[in-house]
Every structure is written in structure tokens, then in C-alpha cells.
Design a protein that fits this description.
The complex is a heterodimer of chains A (about 325) and B (about 400). Helix content of chain A is about 45%, strand content about 10%. With about 325 residues, chain A is an alpha/beta fold. Chain B is of the alpha/beta class and about 400 residues long. In chain B, the strands form 3 sheets. Chain B has a 6-stranded mixed β-sheet. A 3-stranded antiparallel β-sheet of chain B has the order 2-4-3. A two-stranded antiparallel sheet of chain B has the order 1-11. In chain B, about 35% of the residues are buried. Classes of the chains: A alpha/beta (about 325), B alpha/beta (about 400). Chains A and B meet through helix 2, helix 5, helix 9 and strand 9 of A and helix 2, helix 3, strand 2 and helix 9 of B.
């Protein structure tokens, strides 16, 4: 599969991947290295892993990281309660200690957590390690070990080696600096907000019935919003929410009133609302449809917003 | 053909490591070759995209990569070609250009990787000098500051005290503790098989204490020239003490100095990378705003912000106020270190200072190394003051600081 094939198949699943994303995923599969994806919130980091699993037709195994996540909840744990119950139930059987031990430390008593699950699959799954920045640094070191060898040693059972190396995608929201060791072990993709053409394509792919003019206005408005010094800059997820809300309200174009009504889909901090209201003069051209160019115009040019975008050659 | 490609990619790795200070090595060279093979080497844009994935490890590196790649592989003359033949013959221990300023380290680790880039061809060296000349002509920037090696031990001790004495309140997360308030059922159960099926020892758990994150923002404008050195030294000490410390320097632009200051070899070396973040006028508001915007991920309720500045701002006060409000609202504590806050008769009268003051929790002196060495104790006594308790209560979330003795 070349990057272009991959992109087409992603598009068929409603994910419009840029050149960078397609190349990154392709190389992850080819080089069998984990891919570390960073970027602002809501640009499709997690989604890319989900769609990759769909495209490859394999399982997606997801490990959501959180503060305090430890090996027991990420890798494996013995089912102590079940072991105990088993001991009590077989108390009067005349079993030797060895047999009993072999019984309670066997696969049925093992609780597989996502990481162990991922390396014991028949077919290579997609392993999504989501928001690794939320986990502690100690966990990061533990993960590093696993990602290096793809094998786990369980003292009672022996070493389990991955039959098929899973495709690993690690995402981070940069709330904490990741260690250099982890970064160097991975391919690194910085996923930024999409350009206007790609965002328009995403809107059309996800909401096939959307009015072309509305999509155009939303894209232009979002581009404007992302240039403002907001506390929470809206991502693609917000664009989609907003577009969905507007179509539900049967609006075929943005106007002052619909912006007021639905602003909560896009801006989620009160100070940001105030900041936007103070900028009304600057976004009015978008609502009138003056600045927004026709869909056929070259995508990476001035959007009538007073800023010229450099062509990302 | 492939041998040439291999050599060129290896030279590119060396170029990134030595000139651009990427932390890359042979592993990346091999990956880069595999990646280039995978995407095919006919389309240079695609090769660039593939190598970017391999070589970069942070957004900052991503931003610099394309220019480096273009300059190397398709620049007018290609700056790397001289390296091709000479790279291996250059002794690894070539002293850096500024070797006199730094104490030589006999058998030091990785001298080649640490060395300042030595301009190899005339084109780039004249460009560099032209750049320096431009700086000094336009804004009278003097030589860039350096982290002083003298008195570093005192600073390290102060930084260590600051980190260990100031703790945040308890985290919600539970962790194993010998004498925690609750019984840890899972660990107790796990221990049962060892004692033959009967629970004998109860395992306990308690709350972890969260450690604070420190951010030092240093104003390095002309008016602060005399006071920057101790602040830089303190920032270096703090960055060496904990990974949860970050340092930024600003004048007319903001520069993230964290990585540099974590380097144990940095004392004595002029910090050329500061560029416009050094010795110009002060755009306090714009710089702090840039910080809030760019480093938003560092601004958490566990963050302690230390701003070292005299509050002389030539920019818009409205932006300063907005940035300060964001910092105050989203962090644990905002401390302002003012060079003359300790002198008698000091009133915070500068416009920028007056604007910022409502959002500052503690205004502490930072005239010299002594003031900074005393910072942990001063901050600790401030934390015990009633005014701080008020803020901690009023803040809704109680990420109050506590001090440990």
C-alpha cells in the first residue's frame, strides 16, 4: 500500500488525510515503528488510529492514559478474587501444592489489559496509546521497554512475545514534556489545523448534505477564529459540531443571529466569547460572504481576512 | 548509488546534530534510509516529509526541519558538501570556537555533539556575522549573557530547597503507602495466597503529594542588563534540579531556554541562541501573551510562575493585563521578582508594574544572587501568610501550596 492508496482508503472511511498523515501512517506500517502524534486538541489524532484500524480491517486496542496509570491496569494482572475463590473451593481436594499453583497461575486467571491484549493477537492490531502525556513519567519508561521489544515476561507463565507487531500510535496533547528517549524511539508527526481546502473536504465528507456556501463560510470563520488569541482555540471537531448544529437548525448560511445562537459549539470559554464580540467588525465580511472566495479558487490564498497565508510548498 | 545516498544521509544526520542541535544519531540515519527507500527518492518533497518524521521530535524541530533539509539537499550550493569528505577526518575532540570561555573537560562526554557549530564555509560564516552586526547596529545589543559558573553551588542548593519545600496539596490519585488512611483491597488480596489463604497483613494506601511545576520568565531587556545574570543562574539551577522546571527569556521576542539550561555544560557559554530575546526594549505584555499562547500546556493549577522583570513596558498595557489575568487565574501562584523590590522606599510605580500588580501574589526582591538564594524561605513565609490562604480558598479548586520542613 502506497501513501496514495492509504489516503484514498482513508477518504472512503470519511477521514481526509493530508500528505503528511498518509506518509506517516505508511511509514509506521513499513518501518514497524511507533508513531507519536502531537498537535492541538481536536485535529483528529485519535481518529486517525481508529480509521487506520478500519482500513486495515483489524482490531483497535485502546489504552487511555490517565494520572496514576500503572502496569497492573495497562499490561496484566492476576485475578486475585478468582484465585482466592478457587483455593477455597478446592480446599478439600487432595491436590499437591504444585498442581494447585499451576491451576491458579494459568491463563484463565489472567486479566489481560490493553498492552498484553495487543501483543497476543493473531493478526496485528492497531494499538492506540491515547494522551500519554497524562500518564506519569515512570509509566513512560515502562512503555518504552515494551515498545522496544514487544515482549512481556510474566514470572509465573514465562515470556510472551508478540506474534505480530501491532501498529502503535501514541498521541499527546503536550500537557507535559515527553522524554527524549520516547520521542527518539518513535516517528514524530505534528498534526496541525488543516488548511482551508482540507477542512472543506472534511466537512463535505462527514456531512454529505451540507450546503456548499455554508461550508465555505464555516471554513473561513474557523480560519479567522484560529488566528485570535483565544484560551481554547477550536479544532476540526468543533467545526464539525458547528456544521452539524447549523444544518440541524436548517441554516444554509451564517448570519449574525446564527453565530450568536450556536457559538457555544465553537468557543467554550466566556472570555473568548467577549474577545470575539469585540472583533465583530473583522468577521462581518465573512458573514456577508464578501471575502470568502468561490470553492473553485486556489485554496491557499488570502481569505479576505487581512492575512496572506504562505503557500505550504 | 545507494552508497552515495547512505553517505549523504549520514552527513545530513551529522549536520542536524552539529549545526541544528537535533538529538539524532546513527539510529536515525538507518531509519531515514529505510524511510527514503520506502517512499522512493524521486520525489524530493515526499522524501522530505518522510525524513521529517524520522528526524524531528518536537514542534520546534518540525518548524526548523524543512529549511535545514532544503538548504542541505537542494540549496544553491548545498552547505553540507564540505562535510562529506572532511567529517571523518575531523578529530572528535576539536575544541569549540569559544573553547577559552569554557573549562575544558578532560574525557568529557560527547564533545563533538556539544560543540558550538563551527562555520565551515565562508558563505555561512559571513551570513552569521552579518546577522550579529545587524543586531548590534539596530539595537545596541551587547554580548549575549552567560550562566555564571561562580556561586552555582549556592544556587543549586537554593533551587533544591525551593523544590523540596514547596509542595502542592494532595492529589486525588491513590498510591500504595505503608500507613495510608485506607486499606488497599487489591494489594491485600494479592498478599493472601502468600499467607496460605488468610489475610494477615493489611496493605494500605494514601494520597500522593503532587509536585509543583516551575516556570521562570526572565526579562532580558536593556534595563534589566545588570540583573539578568543571577536570574539566569537560578533558572539553570532550577532546570538542573527538576524536569518540572521551564525557563523562558524575553525582550522583544520570547525564547524557550529550557533545553539549553538543562545542559550541565552551559555555564560559561554565551547564550547566542537568545537572538532577539536579549538586550532590546521590553515588550512585556506581548511577550507574556506569547508565552500564554505558546506554552499553554505548561499553565496548570500546579504551576508556580516566577517573573523576573522591572516592569518597564514599552508595549500595550492591555495585552499585559490580559496575559497576567490568564496567568493568575490558571496557575497556583504568580511571583514577581523585582530587582529593586528589596530597597527602602521602593514603590511599584512603573506603568507595567502597576498593571500587573493586581495579578501578582508575591512581589519579592531579586537584586542579586543573595536575594535568589533566600527565595525559598521568603516564598515559604509568604505561603503561610493569611492573604495566600484567602486566594487558595477563593480559587474554588484547592491546589494550595504547603511548605514542608
Amino acid at each position: 500500500m502506497t501513501p496514495d492508496d492509504l489516503r484514498e482508503r482513508f477518504a472512503a472511511h470519511g477521514y481526509i488525510a493530508g500528505d503528511d498523515v498518509a506518509t506517516a501512517l505508511d511509514l509506521t506500517l513499513a518501518l514497524e515503528k511507533p508513531l507519536l502524534v502531537e498537535g492541538p486538541a481536536g485535529v483528529g489524532k485519535t481518529e486517525s488510529a481508529k480509521v487506520l484500524a478500519e482500513v486495515l480491517g483489524t482490531r483497535l486496542i485502546r489504552l487511555q492514559c490517565y494520572e496514576g496509570l500503572d502496569a497492573a491496569s495497562a499490561l496484566y494482572e492476576w485475578n486475585y478474587a478468582k484465585q482466592l475463590l478457587h483455593i477455597r473451593l478446592t480446599e478439600h481436594d487432595q491436590l499437591s501444592t504444585e498442581t494447585r499453583e499451576a491451576q491458579i497461575f494459568s491463563e484463565p486467571f489472567l486479566l489481560r489489559r490493553p498492552l498484553l491484549e495487543a501483543i497476543t493477537q493473531e493478526r496485528a492490531p492497531v494499538l492506540l496509546i491515547d494522551e500519554i502525556d497524562r500518564a506519569d513519567e515512570a509509566f513512560e519508561a515502562f512503555l518504552l521497554e515494551l515498545l522496544g521489544e514487544f515482549q512481556v515476561t510474566i514470572p509465573e507463565l514465562g515470556t510472551i512475545r508478540a506474534r505480530e507487531r501491532p501498529a502503535v500510535i501514541v498521541t499527546s496533547n503536550r500537557t507535559r514534556e515527553l522524554s527524549d528517549a520516547l520521542r527518539r524511539r518513535c516517528l514524530y508527526l505534528w498534526l496541525d489545523y488543516p488548511d482551508a481546502a482540507r477542512e472543506r473536504a472534511i466537512l463535505h465528507a462527514r456531512l454529505p448534505g451540507i450546503d456548499a456556501r455554508l461550508a465555505e463560510q464555516i471554513v473561513a470563520f474557523m480560519a479567522f477564529l484560529r488566528e485570535q488569541p483565544f484560551q481554547k482555540v477550536p479544532g476540526v471537531a468543533e467545526s464539525l459540531d458547528w456544521a452539524l448544529a447549523l444544518t440541524r437548525l436548517h441554516r444554509d448560511a451564517l448570519d449574525e443571529r446564527s453565530v450568536e445562537q450556536t457559538l457555544g459549539c465553537v468557543l467554550k470559554v466566556r472570555e473568548d466569547w467577549e474577545l470575539l464580540r469585540a472583533q465583530r467588525a473583522r468577521y462581518e465580511p465573512i458573514l456577508r460572504g464578501d471575502g470568502a472566495p468561490a470553492a473553485s479558487a486556489a485554496p491557499e490564498t488570502d481569505y479576505g481576512l487581512g492575512s496572506v497565508r504562505a503557500n505550504r510548498g | 548509488m545507494s552508497a552515495t545516498l547512505g553517505a549523504r544521509v549520514a552527513a545530513f544526520t551529522a549536520h542536524l546534530r552539529e549545526r541544528e542541535r537535533f538529538g539524532v544519531g546513527q539510529a536515525q540515519t538507518l531509519d531515514a534510509l529505510r524511510a527514503a527507500e520506502r517512499v522512493g527518492i524521486t520525489d524530493l518533497r515526499r522524501v522530505r516529509a518522510a525524513l521529517r518524521l524520522v528526524y524531528c521530535a518536537s514542534p520546534d524541530e518540525v518548524a526548523r526541519f524543512d529549511a535545514a533539509f532544503d538548504a542541505f539537499f537542494r540549496g544553491p550550493r548545498g552547505i553540507a558538501q564540505p562535510h562529506l569528505g572532511s567529517r571523518n577526518t575531523r578529530p572528535a575532540s576539536t575544541p569549540p570556537k569559544d573553547g577559552g570561555e569554557r573549562a575544558p573537560r578532560p574525557g568529557g562526554d560527547r564533545p563533538a555533539a556539544r560543540a558550538l557549530p563551527v562555520p565551515a564555509d565562508p558563505a555561512s560564516s559571513s551570513g552569521w556575522e552579518a546577522l550579529l552586526a545587524r543586531y548590534s547596529a539596530s539595537s545596541a545589543r551587547s554580548a549575549p549573557p552567560a550562566v555564571a559558573a561562580q556561586g552555582l553551588e549556592t544556587m543549586r542548593a537554593a533551587a533544591a530547597r525551593l523544590v523540596s519545600r514547596l509542595r502542592l496539596a494532595q492529589a486525588r490519585r491513590w498510591r500504595a503507602e505503608r500507613t495510608g488512611p485506607r486499606v488497599d483491597l487489591r494489594r491485600t488480596l494479592r498478599a493472601i495466597p502468600q499467607t496460605g489463604g488468610d489475610p494477615i497483613a493489611l496493605a494500605r494506601r494514601g494520597h500522593a503529594r503532587e509536585s509543583a511545576r516551575f516556570i521562570v520568565l526572565i526579562d532580558a531587556s536593556r534595563s534589566m542588563a545588570e540583573h539578568v545574570a543571577p536570574l539566569l543562574q537560578f533558572a539553570h539551577a532550577l532546570c538542573r534540579t527538576t524536569r518540572r522546571a521551564h525557563a523562558f527569556v524575553f525582550s522583544t521576542a520570547l525564547h524557550d531556554l529550557t533545553r539549553t539550561l538543562r545542559d550541565p555544560l552551559v555555564p560559561g557559554r554565551p547564550l547566542r541562541e537568545l537572538g532577539e530575546a536579549w538586550g532590546g526594549g521590553t515588550r512585556l505584555g506581548a511577550s507574556l501573551e506569547a508565552f500564554v499562547e505558546r506554552a499553554g500546556r505548561l499553565i496548570t493549577p500546579q504551576t508556580i510562575v516566577l517573573i523576573g522583570s522591572d516592569g518597564l513596558d514599552t508595549g500595550e498595557l492591555e495585552r499585559l493585563e490580559r496575559a497576567m489575568r490568564a496567568l493568575h487565574g490558571r496557575t497556583a501562584v504568580v511571583v514577581w521578582l523585582h530587582p529593586s523590590a528589596g530597597s527602602t522606599g521602593f514603590t511599584p510605580s512603573a506603568q507595567g508594574m502597576r498593571t500587573a500588580l493586581p495579578y501578582v501574589d508575591a512581589l519579592l526582591p531579586a537584586a542579586g544572587a543573595d536575594d535568589l538564594a533566600a527565595l525559598p524561605e521568603r516564598l515559604a513565609s509568604y505561603v503561610r501568610a493569611p492573604s495566600f490562604a484567602r486566594r487558595a480558598r477563593g480559587g474554588g479548586r484547592t491546589y494550595a501550596l504547603t511548605t514542608t520542613r
